[in-house]
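FAQ

Q: What does a record look like?
A: Structure on top, sequence underneath. For example:
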């Protein structure tokens, strides 16, 4: 009876010792918490549209559209009973000179006039050249306000009065008739010029074309969607034989991967804003995320099953989990061996753009884990263990950021949005804006900066 009792006591002591050695003794749990995403205003970008209207093109356009009968007044009582009938035809091409905010042009005309005089009515025909000056200014509604005046006239063939006795040179009388008709003629030419020099159709074309999503990378299916918010223009400036200006569209740009994004175009062209100079440069935000499940899979493949020793004591990593705690990544390692339990490390995720991966910097034992190990297993403070875990916390991105940049640069050499509308530009930089932790994984936001230019056929 005594032997059996003694044996039972010994067995119980051994069992308790065995249970004590196998008991899990984990560091305090640091908790899981996530900060709300910081509100960051989307960057405003500017897409530049340089415009050159050559005098040669302008003259060609006017000569094509302004032909034949330009002006006709068949009543003596029109224009305040001026007693004048007048018809003007264009006979030769226009000649145009542009300086500052003024267009000067010479218009060769054939003239027929009939003026009431004391003895009835005098009818004359002749050919002359009018010297005209048009001052112009753009209005907020994209209309062109013009003010045309007749500076001089020069007879190419003397006006002749038709009589039964023959033709009589009546140049002084014809000069008087022209002087009386200058205001009416100038107003008619104002309407004609303002119609031919409208920029609104080109601005509307640019506004509509920019809203269509652009596929910058076919492999990764990287789309850029532009939302224009304002459009402006620098003053028209004469340069040589041309008029130069710059249209610019202020917009927001979004980048997304996958299917072509759905968009609803805004067809309302806003009022024109006039600025002394056009801004330059666009900014594009690109977001990339490494899900926790993928990050854990990669890290486990590197450290689970690894054994670390200190003297006669050793531990083996059985499992690894990741989650967020504020702006830090928590690394939970489950250990077995001389120490059974969980310990926690924390570090800050950073994006290494050059190596196209997310890494964890400043990796240290969690403060409460450090205090716990000081009391129970200080030998676990192994630089080899921390270094090995740090090496496992490297997460390649699915999208190669530098490859995306290169592909986008190639696409922007000449990207045809639609026939006659071509987008060109450069991608100058790709920089990290911020890296933070969300409930679903590790997220990084990047900025791509560069310049964009939209060219519309017909503009130089």
């Amino acid at each position: 009876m005594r032997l059996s009792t003694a044996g039972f006591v010994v067995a119980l002591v051994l069992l308790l010792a065995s249970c004590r050695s196998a008991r899990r003794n984990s560091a305090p749990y640091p908790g899981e918490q996530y900060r709300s995403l910081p509100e960051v205003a989307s960057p405003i970008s500017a897409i530049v549209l340089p415009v050159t209207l050559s005098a040669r093109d302008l003259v060609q356009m006017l000569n094509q559209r302004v032909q034949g009968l330009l002006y006709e007044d068949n009543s003596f009582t029109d224009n305040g009973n001026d007693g004048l009938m007048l018809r003007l035809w264009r006979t030769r091409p226009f000649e145009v000179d542009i300086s500052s905010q003024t267009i000067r042009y010479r218009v060769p005309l054939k003239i027929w006039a009939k003026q009431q005089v004391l003895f009835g009515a005098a009818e004359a025909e002749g050919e002359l050249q009018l010297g005209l000056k048009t001052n112009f200014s753009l209005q907020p509604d994209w209309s062109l306000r013009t003010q045309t005046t007749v500076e001089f006239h020069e007879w190419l063939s003397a006006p002749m009065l038709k009589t039964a006795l023959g033709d009589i040179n009546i140049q002084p009388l014809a000069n008087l008739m022209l002087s009386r008709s200058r205001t009416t003629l100038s107003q008619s030419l104002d309407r004609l010029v303002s119609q031919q020099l409208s920029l609104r159709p080109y601005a509307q074309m640019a506004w509509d074309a920019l809203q269509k999503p652009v596929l910058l990378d076919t492999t990764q299916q990287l789309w850029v969607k532009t939302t224009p918010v304002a459009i402006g223009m620098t003053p028209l400036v004469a340069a040589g034989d041309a008029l130069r200006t710059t249209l610019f569209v202020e917009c927001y740009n979004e980048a997304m991967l996958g299917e072509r994004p759905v968009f609803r175009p805004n067809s309302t062209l806003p009022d024109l804003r006039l600025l002394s100079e056009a801004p330059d440069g666009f900014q594009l935000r690109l977001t990339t995320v490494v899900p926790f499940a993928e990050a854990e899979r990669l890290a486990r493949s590197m450290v689970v099953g690894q054994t670390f020793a200190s003297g006669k004591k050793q531990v083996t990593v059985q499992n690894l989990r990741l989650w967020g705690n504020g702006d830090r990544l928590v690394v939970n390692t489950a250990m077995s061996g001389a120490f059974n339990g969980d310990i926690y490390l924390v570090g800050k995720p950073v994006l290494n753009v050059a190596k196209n991966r997310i890494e964890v910097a400043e990796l240290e034992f969690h403060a409460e884990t450090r205090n716990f190990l000081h009391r129970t297993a200080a030998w676990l403070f192994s630089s080899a263990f921390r270094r090995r875990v740090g090496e496992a916390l490297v997460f390649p991105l699915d999208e190669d950021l530098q490859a995306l940049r290169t592909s986008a640069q190639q696409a922007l050499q000449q990207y045809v949005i639609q026939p006659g509308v071509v987008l060109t530009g450069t991608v100058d930089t790709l920089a990290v804006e911020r890296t933070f932790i969300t409930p679903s994984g590790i997220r990084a936001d990047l900025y791509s900066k560069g310049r964009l230019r939209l060219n519309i056929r017909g503009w130089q």
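Q: Is there anything notable about this one?
A: The chain has two domains: 28-52+199-460, 66-197.
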